[in-house]
């Protein structure tokens, strides 16, 4: 059967996804006493999946390893630091080609999941590496490694599609065991977000109870959510509320300087923010070493930013940055829906247009026959008679149906594009700014709302920038979650100032 499908493929240069599971016995490496990371990597690169039992086993083994680690890791060898990955598995694969996974020390700064469509593969593969190479692979926690964000962005939907909700919950619980920070060779402090007014001494980090959801305030929150201030070195301030994130703080050079001096460090290496070149350097402290490095390792973030990714190597004396371009990845349909469902609105729209033309033709015939007697004023068509009022009602219904199909089609076509943040959300907001996709700053500006801490108050405001089941409007989700007939019954469609507006009637 698979051979027949392979033979019928129009583009034979693109390999068929791996539909098969691999037996656990074949995955197992006796020397490592665990699954072979090379086999899993090869399987994931061909879009293969593991069984629920295999995922569970990986989580159980990795949690045992992570649980033994302290909140603050002390790295005593030269190390490569890797920033946010955000579900970009194929970019991660290209990046890791540059390292010897068995020998090189790699520190990941967190944010393995959400936004990209291969978050599961990224996180599971890194856990497998952690179990196989526990002494040189280190995984820190990012602000996206929590239930509140992954249930709101893309990770939950991805895992539910590929496995089930139970597996998602197990994955979410494993986030609790990820360490919070690391120090390389007693000089470089590595963390996802940054420092905190609550952080006086490095020992404070080990006092945190990390085995829980990320709180909305306090030291643990700040380590994962804080940012350098925009005017980092132009103020004598130390900390201010982080208005961009709506949680935690922004920190200034004075705060960083005080932290580095007190803990005998020379720099902070963090991720958390996309940068056009993949990195950003901040004002130097004492030596020529920047006081803060931002390292972001997801090139062309969200398939939208056109940014580079980067990694940072520190050997105890020198800091070496290396940048990476993005690679192509397999296409994933919006919301993981099948092609038939994805094209339904387009096909329905065309059928409705044909039917509408037919009804208008009948109406014209009916108008020309208005001189006939009342008994003769019905039109016979395929053994069914239509009165003038029936035809008009049918035309109005089909118009309404057609408009809703146009809206659904446009939303699916544009769900990977940015909507202007000042516009209110509604299902007809399909206006896009395609011409700015190459403009990094414009894309970043319009994506700011997705950088906020998610809570119930702001949950309704989030906009879409994802390429797959991501942040499409909740009204659109509601339309898709019910049958078409029910959806149309709930729809109120009106035209104001030449703009189409669709609202759902509340029950």
TrEMBL record:
It comes from Tubulinosema ratisbonensis. The keyword Ribosomal protein does not apply. Its EC number is 3.1.3.16. One of its GO terms (biological process) is calcineurin-mediated signaling. InterPro entries: Calcineurin-like_PHP, Metallo-depent_PP-like, PP2B, Ser/Thr-sp_prot-phosphatase. Keywords: Hydrolase. It holds the Pfam family Metallophos. Belongs to the PPP phosphatase family. Transmembrane segments: none annotated. The lineage of its organism: Eukaryota, Fungi, Fungi incertae sedis, Microsporidia, Tubulinosematoidea. It comes from the Eukaryota. This is Serine/threonine-protein phosphatase. GO terms for molecular function: calmodulin-dependent protein phosphatase activity.
